[in-house]
Design brief:
alpha+beta; elongated; 15 strands; five-stranded mixed beta sheet; eight-stranded mixed beta sheet; about 25% strand
Length: about 375
C-alpha cells in the first residue's frame, strides 16, 4: 500500500519518502495532505483511482507515530461506509500489503485531486463532530461528488467499480430488512421496501418520505406501542420535536438513538404517522431479515396505488380529489387539476422512487439540527 504525500506532510511527520516505483497497482495508491480544519490538524486521504476520501480529524503531536495505523484504519472505515464485505476488505489489505510506504507526490493530477478533496472537506467542516476522528457521518457526503469530463460518475461508484474490476461482483454486503408499508386510504396504497438494518429512525423517516414522495413539510412520529384505547404510549421522534401526546403518559425516544434493527428485533409491526393535520397513518410490517444483502441501498421492490399529494385533506380529501380528476366535466375539475400540478405530484413510478431514495440515503446526513 502506497501513500503519496505533500512535502508539508512529510516534513510534519518527519518521514523521508521512499523512491517511487511503478510496480504497484493503482488501486492500492492513496495520496494525502495535511490541512487545518476548525483549528485542528487534519489529514485528508484520497484514493487516487476513484478520488474517494476519508479524513483523520484532530491530529496531535503525540499521535504522529500512530499515523500509519490510523491511515489503515481510515481506509477500513471508508470501505465499511460503502458496505464493502469484511472479507473483501481483508483481501484488499492482503493484496496491497499491510506495510504502508510513503512517497512524494509526482503527478500534477494527483496533487489536484488532493487539493479538490481538501476544498470539499472545508465545505462541510461546520458539521463536523468534535469527538469523531474519522467523521463517520460525513463519509457519504464527502464521497458523493459527481466527476468526469464526458462520462460522469460519483466518486463512490468509481471506488466500487475499481474493486469490482479487480475482484468481480458481489463485493458489497449488508444486513437488511424487508418491510411492507401500507398507507391507510380508501384506495389501496402500499409499498414493499428493502432497507439496510443500520439506519436510525431519522434516516428511516427520510426514506419513507421518498417512498411516498412526501416533502417532509410536517411533523412525524413512529408509534411502537399503544394503550387499550389505541393512544400512543411509546413513540420515536426527533429530539427537537414538540410532543403533542400530552393527553396520556408517553415514552419518547430520540430517533437518532434507535436503529431499525433494534426495533424490528422486538416488534413485528409499528406505525408511522406523518402530518398530524391530514393524519397520514402508515402501518409497517416486518416481512423478513436479510443477513447478506448485496445491494446495500434502500429500494422499493413492489408498489400498489398512488400516494396522496401533500396537504390534500387526509384520506377523505384525497378520495374526493381522485374522484374529481376522473371526470373532466366535473365543475371543480380545472381548479383541482391546477392545484395538483402546483404540488409537484405525479402518479406512481417505482423507478423514480428508487432514484430518489438512493439519493436520500447518501446525501442526508444522519443527524438533525435545531
Amino acid at each position: 500500500m502506497r501513500l503519496e504525500c505533500t512535502r508539508k506532510m512529510l516534513d510534519y511527520l518527519g518521514i523521508k519518502p521512499e523512491k517511487k516505483t511503478d510496480d504497484i497497482d493503482p488501486i492500492f495508491t492513496w495520496t494525502a495532505n495535511l490541512i487545518t480544519v476548525n483549528r485542528r490538524k487534519t489529514l485528508v486521504v484520497v484514493h487516487v483511482p476513484s478520488r474517494c476520501m476519508f479524513l483523520i480529524y484532530g491530529i496531535t503531536a503525540k499521535r504522529i507515530p500512530e499515523i500509519p495505523e490510523l491511515i489503515k484504519q481510515g481506509i477500513r472505515e471508508l470501505l465499511r461506509s460503502e458496505y464493502v464485505h469484511p472479507e473483501m476488505i481483508e483481501k484488499y489489505f492482503a493484496d496491497g500489503g499491510e506495510t504502508l510506504t510513503f512517497a512524494a507526490n509526482s503527478s500534477r493530477s494527483t496533487i489536484a485531486y488532493c487539493n479538490k478533496a481538501c476544498e470539499r472537506v472545508n465545505m462541510f467542516s461546520n458539521l463536523f463532530e468534535p469527538n469523531d476522528m474519522f467523521q463517520h457521518a460525513m463519509l457519504p457526503w464527502l464521497n458523493d461528488e459527481l466527476i468526469g469530463a464526458k462520462d460522469y460518475a460519483y466518486t463512490h461508484e468509481l471506488l466500487i467499480g475499481s474493486l469490482q474490476e479487480r475482484y468481480g461482483e458481489g463485493i458489497q454486503s449488508c444486513g437488511a430488512l424487508e418491510l411492507e408499508v401500507k398507507l391507510k386510504l380508501f384506495s389501496p396504497c402500499k409499498r414493499r421496501i428493502i432497507i439496510p438494518d443500520n439506519l436510525n429512525f431519522y434516516q428511516f423517516h427520510r426514506i419513507l418520505q421518498g417512498v411516498f414522495e412526501w416533502h417532509d413539510c410536517h411533523l412525524h412520529q413512529f408509534v411502537l406501542e399503544r394503550d387499550t384505547l389505541e393512544r400512543p404510549i411509546k413513540v420515536v421522534q426527533p429530539a427537537n420535536t414538540e410532543d403533542f401526546s400530552d393527553f396520556c403518559e408517553v415514552e419518547t425516544i430520540d430517533s437518532l438513538k434507535l436503529t431499525v434493527q433494534d426495533v424490528f428485533a422486538q416488534y413485528s409491526r409499528i406505525d408511522y404517522e406523518y402530518d398530524f393535520g391530514d393524519d397520514w397513518c402508515h402501518s409497517i410490517k416486518l416481512c423478513r431479515f436479510i443477513e447478506d444483502c448485496q445491494e446495500p441501498y434502500p429500494r422499493c421492490i413492489q408498489a400498489v396505488g398512488d400516494a396522496p399529494m401533500e396537504d390534500s385533506g387526509g384520506a377523505y380529501g384525497f378520495a374526493q380529489i381522485t374522484e374529481v380528476l376522473k371526470d373532466p366535466n366535473h365543475p371543480e375539475y380545472k381548479e383541482i387539476s391546477d392545484w395538483v400540478r402546483g404540488t409537484w405530484w405525479s402518479p406512481l413510478n417505482v423507478e423514480r422512487i428508487n432514484l430518489r431514495i438512493k439519493n436520500i440515503h447518501r446525501r442526508h446526513i444522519p443527524v438533525y439540527y435545531e
